[in-house]
Amino acid sequence: MFAFFIGRVYHVLTRVPPYGGCEVQYEGESSKMKHARRTIVVLLCVTMLLLMVAGCNRNEPQESQTQTESPDTTEPVRDDIVIGIAQDIDVSLDPHLMTSAASRAVLFNVFEGLVKPTPEGFLAPAVASSFEISESGDTFTFTLRDNILFHNGEPVTAQDVVYSISRVSGFYNDGTALIPAFSIVESVTAEDENTIVIKTTVPNIEFLSFLTAAIIPENYDAQETAPVGTGPYMYVSRSPQENLIFEKFDDYWGDVPSITHVTYRILDNTEALMMALRSGTVDFCSHLMSSQMAELQGLGYNFEIGTMNLVQAVYLNNAVAPFDNVEVRRALAHAINRSEIMDVLADGLGVPVGSSMYPAFSKYFTAELADYYDYDPQKAKSLLSEAGYPDGFTMEIVVPSNHGPHIDTATVVVEQLREIGVTATIRLVEWSTWIDDTYRGRNFEATVVGVDASAMTARAMLERFSSTNGSNFINFSNAEYDEVFAAAISATNDEDQVLLYKELELILTQQAANLYIQDLCDIIAINEDISGFEFYPLFVEDLARLYYK
Amino acid sequence: MIIKKNHYLFFGFIITALVLSIAIIGFFWTPNNPNAIDSSNRFASPSTKYPLGTDNFGRCILSRVVEGIGATVLVAVFTLIIGFGVGLIIGTLTGYYGGWVDELLMRSGDVVMAFPSILLALVFISITGTGRYNVIIALGVLFIPSFARVVRGEFVRIRELDFVHSAKIMGAGPLRIMLVHILPNAIPVLLRFLAIGFNNAVLAEASMSYLGLGVQPPDSSLGRLLSDSQPFLFTAPWYALSAGVAIVLLILGFSLISEGIVLPRSE
After folding, report:
1. What DSSP assignment string belongs to B183-202?
2. Smallest CA–CA distance from A19 into chain B, residue
3. In angstroms, what CA-CA distances link A343 with A358, A374, B239?
4. Which residues of B251-266 are buried (b: 16+ CB within 10 A; e: fewer)?
């Protein structure tokens, strides 16, 4: 009976017309064609069977392979590393024109500024050997490091530094700064062969953190295709959508890296990336999901678990009803169960946040704010009815469709809001639509995204919420906030400034400006023979610290 | 169209009845709330509470598959209503009257059919926005030309047969000839094509939702389930398998039915 049924199915399959096809064609089909069609189907069936059999057996030889490999540790120490990245970096390699975070992460190893960030979140002298900020907070004096070379062998001169800073500040074009923070630069001059002075139009001690902007040689115009900097690695070659090759710079002023050759392989398809990791052809890969980590257990990787350095939240449009009512926002904040979201997204990994600041900014981060609104649906309900919505309301959450974690978060949030009577729906949009309509057009009710910082300063996170800021996409408007922000950016003392920034964070929390959730976990798989990896408070990967055990 | 000894039709009806009754029951009752999240039971393997296990949110996969079949079938049915309804009218009129209107409509149909249909649907969705209703409209419109063409083909063939000429001579009006004399004779072919069209609509809906353009999360549809389960193919294979089997059964049932419908002229 069963065999008969299979036979019938087979018969049907061999005769199913193609997509959108028309039955009439089959009446005229010759027996020869039918025969050919059947042969093809039989071949396909056999191939599928073979594949299935192969698939069943695949695990066993792999296990025995790793077993035989592990005792054999006599192979010579490697001096190369292959890094898998999920998206290609910008077409232009010019460090002053980078737009994507992926470019920043990669070119961090090639370029350095007068100062460079450290994993602890401080700024260390780099191209400059020392620096000084005037009492007034508007004059920065740098002493150039002795005997420092560019990758092309030319020495770095004070003139190169002046050129680089002037270029970023927009002095060579129509005056638009290439990096917006440099718009406050008034002048940059070389006092003598080793001293550079930068003056700003307004006091701003945080400007120092933007001086991580790359120092590049003055008389070199091929930065876009063959970048030259002062970093520990130098650019060798690039094949778009395929790979990017670096080599260590032997004349580096600091500790010369231990690993000589670096290859970035672009694997922009999750399956391809996982295959490469499973086969061991990739030594290093960041931004994995916890399920992918589980899949790679026991295949020769160590896992580093950090955070992505962004603030994921349900960002609420504070200008549209009902979110213009602070009581409603507070009620919703009580309805969000962060630990459930984190459990679902990454088995509980990630760090809860309660304001627009992420934990890697240890100087500014206030962990307690995450507990400001405890999860309490009953309280949320009563707050909601006090605010005039006893039966809840409906809302729409816009989510960029290319960000899986945000979609999953929104899915959980919808269920949590349902418990307090709020009916939320999800609308997925393309990333470009999100940028145009939601971010620039501010035409939304709520959206789930992660907001990150472009520079290592609290200002990068908090400036957008001042009421007149162009990036204030949630239309947050609070007089006290604007006042404190103005005081914070003109503070000339670091301690005062930190306190003022913390006050801003508290205002955002008290006003429940957004439903803050977490800093997403970031899982990195590294070949277990490599050590030395450290997380930075920025979206970068420092290869110079890696070495083979 | 005799069911006796017609194994295609017999098994087709059984499978289809099974799947559709599941879908209909699913509109009123599912084992669990398909959207309820149970974070302590993520990736649970099949159990009595969750007969097909749970997904990455701890949602009941069986409930989601049942809801998904319903959503997919509904989209397919409404797609057919639009595509077949309009296609029937256009095909009937152009097939019976012919002339320059026939040329115009058929050539514009050719233009639509010259593009891969999924590609056209993608363009349509990117203009109108995502969501199941937009998918219904997009697919419905795209299905019109192929239906219209089949209906027209049948009408052109039948209108030249002797009995139609006889009816004309006996003074029957065009409407009567179209509806009473020609249409009933075209029904077997149209039914077969309808079953195939249903399958195409199911697959198209699944593709659109798989690409994230159809049914929006957290709601479920078969394509949505496939894309949701893709990252967990190795860790929770029952998830993708459940959705895949549902699609296969749905398609197989209608394929068998379309195969089983016996055409009058091949008897």
Report:
1. HHHHHHHHHHHHHHHHHHHH
2. B200
3. 19, 17, 19
4. bbbbbbbbbbbeeeee
Residue B48 exposed, middle or buried by CB count within 10 Å (0-12, 13-18, 19+):
exposed
Alpha-carbon dihedral of residues B35, B40, B42, B45, nearest 10 degrees? Answer: -110
Proportion of chain B above pLDDT 90, given as a percent = 42
- Binary contact (A412, B37; C-beta < 8 A): yes
Residue of B nearest to A337 (CA): B39
Q: Please identify which residue in the block is written with the tokens 């003109």.
A: A490
CA–CA dist B22, B41 (Å, integer): 25
Residue length, chain B?
267
pLDDT band, very low/low/confident/very high, at A66 (cuts 50, 70, 90): very low
In chain A, what residues touch B153 (CB-CB under 8 Å)?
A: 22, 24
Q: Which of A344, A425, A426 sits opposite B57 (nearest CB)?
A: A344
- Which residue bears the tokens 């077949």? B84
Cβ atoms B155, B92 nearer than 8 A: yes
Distance CA B151, CA B191 (A): 11
Is residue B16 less than 8 Å (CB to CB) from chain A? no
Interatomic CA distance for residues A425 and A418, integer angstroms: 10
A/B interface, count of CB pairs below 8 Å: 91
pLDDT of residue A261: 95
CA distance B171 to chain A (A): 31
A291 touches chain B (CB under 8 A): yes
Q: Yes or no: say if A467 and A478 are a contact pair by the CB < 8 Å rule.
A: yes
**A24 and B CB contact within 8 Å:** yes
Q: Does B217 touch chain A (CB under 8 A)?
A: yes
* Beta-carbon separation of A415 and B218 below 8 A: yes
Cβ–Cβ gap A15/B36 under 8 Å: no
Nearest C-alpha neighbor of A465 from the set A444, A437, A486: A486
DSSP 3-state assignment of A306? Answer: strand
B200 touches A at CB < 8 Å: yes
For residue A385, give both structure tokens: 């009815």
A13 contacts: CB under 8 Å, gap ≥ 6: A41, B255
Torsion of CA B97, B98, B101, B103, to 10 degrees: 170
Beta bridge partners of A516: A313
Chain A residue nearest residue B191, CA to CA: A23
Backbone dihedral angles phi then psi of residue A133, each to the nearest 5 degrees: -115, 130
Provide φ and ψ at A181, rounded to 5°: -60, -20
Given CB atoms, is B218 within the 8 Å cutoff of chain A?
Answer: yes
- Report the chain B residue with the minimal C-alpha distance to residue A17: B196
Cβ within 8 Å of residue B118, ≥6 positions away:
B204, B207, B208
ipTM over 0.85: no
Contact with chain B for residue A410, Cβ under 8 A: yes
Does residue B57 belong to the interface with chain A, where contact is any CB pair within 8 Å? yes
Band the pLDDT of A44: cuts 50, 70, 90.
Answer: low
Using CA coordinates, name the residue in chain B closest to A343: B39
Reply yes or no on whether the pLDDT at A67 is more than 50: no
Eight-class DSSP state of A435: I
Q: Write out pLDDT tens, residues B188-246.
A: 889 889 999 999 999 999 998 888 888 888 889 999 999 888 888 877 888 999 999 99
B38: CB partners within 8 A, 6+ apart: B54, B57, B58, B59
Cβ-defined contact of A401 to B256 (cutoff 8 Å): no
Q: Find the helix packing angle between B61-97 and B7-28, rounded to 10°.
A: 120
- CA distance linking residue B109 with residue B265, whole number of Å: 28
Query: Which amino acid, one-letter code, is at B104?
Result: L
Confidence band for A92, pLDDT divided at 50, 70 and 90: confident
SS3 of residue A84 by DSSP = strand
Q: Which pLDDT tens digit goes with each residue over A327-339?
A: 999 999 999 999 9
